[in-house]
Design a protein that fits this description.
The chain is an alpha+beta fold and about 450 residues long. It has four domains: about 130 residues, no CATH class; about 80 residues, no CATH class; about 55 residues, SH3 type barrels, CATH 2.30.30; about 80 residues, Alpha-Beta Plaits (2-Layer Sandwich), CATH 3.30.70.100. A hairpin with a 3-residue loop joins strand 4 and strand 5. The longest helix has about 30 residues. It is elongated, with a radius of gyration of 38 Å.
Amino acid sequence: MDQTKILEKAQGYAVQGWDVAKEWLLSPQAWTQFGLLVAAYLLALFLTRRLQPVLDRLLTPPDEKTNVIAKTRRFILTFLPLMLPLLAYGLTGIGETVTRSIFDAGAVIAFGKRVFMFLAARILVNEVIKDPLLKVLGKYFLLPVAALYAVGFLDEVMTRLDQTVVPLGNLSFSLLFLIRFVLVGGAIFWLGRWSNDQTAAAIKRQEEMRPAMRELTAKAAEIAIFGLAFLLVMNIMGISLTSLAVLGGAIGVGLGFGLQKIASNFISGVILLLEGQATVGDYVELDGGEAGTIVKMTARAAILETYDGKWIVVPNEDFITTRVVNYSDSGSANRYEAPFSVSYDTDINLVPDIVESAVAAMPDVLSEPFPPDCELRAFGDSGIEFAVEFWVNGIDDGRHKYTSDVLFCIWNALKAHNIEIPFPQRVVQVKGEIRTRVK
């Protein structure tokens, strides 16, 4: 029965469409509108070919420019492919006004104008939009809506969608409401994500702020932006926030039981950012043996990058409840030492001055808080043992090999002063007469 009704309705639409087509084909007014439509497209094509190179040259900033004006020019430049269909749409609108004033009719040219709008939407989705979320929304929502608008069925389809109610327990909503919610929510949250990226980039450029404070400010801005986006979506869609009280209570119970670890890590992350004891760029070592440079701090965990390229995800709670060794807190210097030995034939009174002068001349070695200090450590089996203590900014690992460079420097300095670096030696004394019996 339902299939019969659908076929009858489709047949009715087909007959109606054929009558409209015959009316257009046999009407001089329709042919006039068609001629104006073609003329509008050709004029738009001519203007596009003339204006697009000029606009492309004016809007393209130099490659080295990265300021706000340059970014705005590049953003506008991405919309140049829309010039042809939008110009055709505008010129066709002028032609529609003319035909309606002369013939009191404009169905053909109005249809062409809607087709140009569909072409603009198609170019927007396929060529202009690069964001994956917006591309999906455009492909599955914007293009079908534009196609229905082009053929004149949009109002009828929207009425049917509004009449189709989906029950969900004590709640119910129409399909049209659901589609609007997805479109509005997706667009607003994309705008929120874009705003958050721009805000975070602007905050991280503030070099006068401590790294920890920059991270905390960026997180606070992120929470504020997406919180505002959520409230804006709820307000636009007409959803009362009081109706979310039950949902908020359920989330609170979940945080109290199943999500307490997540809540603990989140609060620990806020404490870390406030105190600034460990921040991005610090080299840390935890009690569990994890060690590396903090490359990112999220609401849940910190990401350490080891010198062999591995990433370790450490929960924020571990930084609060366990012992943490920070080798580079706030960019402070670190002290290392390089051991070496000299021969017993050496005048050891000369060694400290020679070594300290050579090491102090190295570019990576600091004079503050203390200059290089060469100390006598022991009288060893093979030589006299020394060690030079020195301070550097950074960790003696990975791409920085400070101790290795200092040892090279010591070797060259001692060789230049003819001071011998001994190798392991043993003196063997044989007591008593050795008798050899020959059989």
